[in-house]
Amino acid sequence: RLVLGIETSCDETGAAVMDETGLILGESLHSQKEVHMKTGGIIPTVAQRLHRENIGRVVQEAMERSGVTQSQLSAVATTVKPGLALSLGIGLDFSLNFVKLHQKPFIPIHHMEAHALTVRMFQPVVFPFLVLLVSGGHSLLALARGIDDFLLLGQTLDEAPGDTMDKVARRLSLIKHPKCSMISGGQAIELLARDGDRLKFLFKPPMGAHYDCNFSFAGLRNQVTMSIQKKEVEEGVEQGTLLSCVNDIAAATQHTVASHIAKRTHRAILFCKAKGLLPSCNPTLVVSGGVASNQYIRKTLKIVTDTTGLHLLCPPSKFCTDNGVMIAWNGVERLREGKGILSHTEEVNYEPKAPLGVNITAEVK
Ligand code: ATP
Ligand code: FE
Ligand code: MG
Fold it and tell me: Where, if anywhere, are coiled coils annotated (predicted)?
């Protein structure tokens, strides 16, 4: 059986053809990152236009590279939630036309479920396992109990860590920094932090008085912005032209983000253990999302999993960020279990907001 996966939830147009074992037969990805970097954030109508311009070619490329014909496909799997309405709409319209034309079953996919399950393409991780998703758009901790069964333990109350680091990087005009052209804000922070002293700036850890597994990064961003402003005034330089101590600010920001993520993850592990939610054999923490490629954050998480006896697993970096492959894989998992496969698509719509499973308060004092 063969699945075509299509992703357009945010700023990546992705497609992939995969066989039932998870083998990638062909894939194609078009990223809009560069365009959005120039405007300092995603403009939904621009994202929509770029998806529209690229989706046909991206799907065709993935199909051609796979050597699979439309008639050989068993199903088409496409992200329908959550994400930007205008972006989701392009992928869904394209897919519904495609399945109608070629008379194929359709499998609607939840983008965050796909991120959570990607690891199973590479390792036979068994349910239940704990998953931490940290990216530019999300920050959440969940217990994966099955391919479509998640317990949401915590999520961000304001912005996601990748977004925070992107905004700090923009405030520091790192795009003009000789070492940081053509990389994301998060990557720039990681790179500069290597030469910085995090103890030169002390930022207050977020949510110190909350004993749950939720996240918050907006307060940290405010603190960092205020410190940058103060330094600019002290040094008598224009906004966004600070040169001294940029490395130290990066290091302190990264450290505070890493500690906050680690603290919440540690709590989620303790909560799951106390409630008997994790298996005694090979309990696992899966980490994914663009921010998961940060080595400092990974090392901090490794300390948490080592001290609590969990295995730490991350999909290869390329599969931590948005792509068509993870959507195809989710389609394969659903096809195997016969879950959520539609032969009538009249009722299918996209959902910009969609929680990942049942939300519970995971408190440990
Ligand atoms: P989502 O997948 O939630 O819709 P997204 O598309 O913005 O959101 P990803 O593509 O998974 O997220 O990841 C991009 C984010 O990851 C950016 O915010 C970027 O700054 C951040 N990021 C990438 N590399 C690193 C790194 N090495 N350290 C920290 N952050 C990073
Ligand atoms: Fe994503
Ligand atoms: Mg993306």
Answer: none
Query: Helix 295-308 to helix 246-274 angle, to the nearest 10 degrees?
Result: 30
User: Is the Cβ–Cβ distance between 140 and 116 less than 8 Å?
Assistant: no
Express each pLDDT in 264-322 by its tens digit: 999 999 999 999 999 999 999 999 999 999 999 999 999 999 999 999 999 999 999 99
Q: How far is CA 300 from CA 11, 61, 197, 263, in A?
A: 29, 39, 17, 10
Expressed in angstroms and rounded, the spacing between residue 321 Cα and the centre of ligand 1 is 7
Which pTM was predicted? 0.96
Report the C-alpha gap between 232 and 227 in whole angstroms: 9
Q: How far is the CA of 244 from the centre of ligand 2 (A)?
A: 34
Residue 154 in contact with ligand 1 by CB distance below 6 A: no
Tokens 């046909």 belong to which residue? 56
Q: Which atom of ligand 1 is nearest to the CA of 295?
A: 27
- What are the E-state strand segments in 8-105? 12-19, 24-31, 75-81
Report the separation in Å between the CA atom of 212 and the middle of ligand 1, taken as the mean of its atom positions.
24
Fill in the DSSP letter of residue 317: G
Cα 76 versus chain centre, distance: 22
Q: Could you report the per-residue pLDDT of 73-108, keeping only the tens digit for each?
A: 999 999 999 999 999 999 999 999 999 999 999 999
